[in-house]
Amino acid sequence: DTEVTQTPKHLVMGMTNKKSLKCEQHMGHRAMYWYKQKAKKPPELMFVYSYEKLSINESVPSRFSPECPNSSLLNLHLHALQPEDSALYLCASSQGGSMTSSSYEQYFGPGTRLTVT
Amino acid sequence: AQKITQTQPGMFVQEKEAVTLDCTYDTSDPSYGLFWYKQPSSGEMIFLIYQGSYDQQNATEGRYSLNFQKARKSANLVISASQLGDSAMYFCAMSSTGGYQKVTFGTGTKLQVIP
Lengths: 117, 115
Prior knowledge:
The complex is a heterodimer. Chain A has strands at about 5, 10-15, 20-25, 30-35, 45-50, 55, 65-70, 75-80, 85-95, 105-110, 110-115. In chain A, a hairpin with a 2-residue loop joins β7 (about 65-70) and β8.
C-alpha cells in the first residue's frame, strides 16, 4: 500500500476562519512533509516531521501550524490566512526518518486545493 | 546549495514515440539522489523513478528510464512508447546528504502526447 490520503480535497475559507488539513499514511514511513504549490510552479517545502518531531520549518508564517499526533497522521492548522495563501497543499511521506540517511522517494497525497476569500 | 534545471517548459510527442525530458543539476555533495515525478492535471505527484549518485547502472521502471551522466551532471528522463495518459507536468528533483529530506524540484516540463 503506497497510499497517502488527504482531506479535504477542496477547501474554501475566509480570512478569519480556522480550518485544518489532514494527511494520513500507513506505510510505516518515519518522515512526513507539507508542501505548498502555486499554479504552474514546483512544490515548495513548508515543514518536515521526522519521527513525529518537527525537523524542518522553511520560515513559514505562523498562520500555518503543523502538528503530528502520531507516526501516521499529519495535520496543518490554518488561521487568519491571506488570499495569496490560496494554493494546492500537498502532503508526502518517505521511508527515511534521518536527515543524513537516504530517504529515497517521497510518496505524495492527492492534495488539498485551498481558496482563501 | 543544490540546483535543478529543466530547460524545456513544454514538449510535444506523437503517441507511441519515445521522448526525452532534460534535467541538469548542480551540487557539491558527493552523495545525492535524483528523482522524477509526474503531475497530471488532477494535482497528485506520482513518483516515477529514482537514481542514486553511486548507482553504476541507469535506473529503469517499465517505460521510464533515467539517462544518468554523472560527469555532465544530467539526469534525463526517457519515456518510451508514449501514451495519451503520459500528458502531464514532469518534475526532476534531487536530495543530498546535506539533508535527504529536503528535496529540490526543477521548474517542470509540460508534456503533451498527440494522438
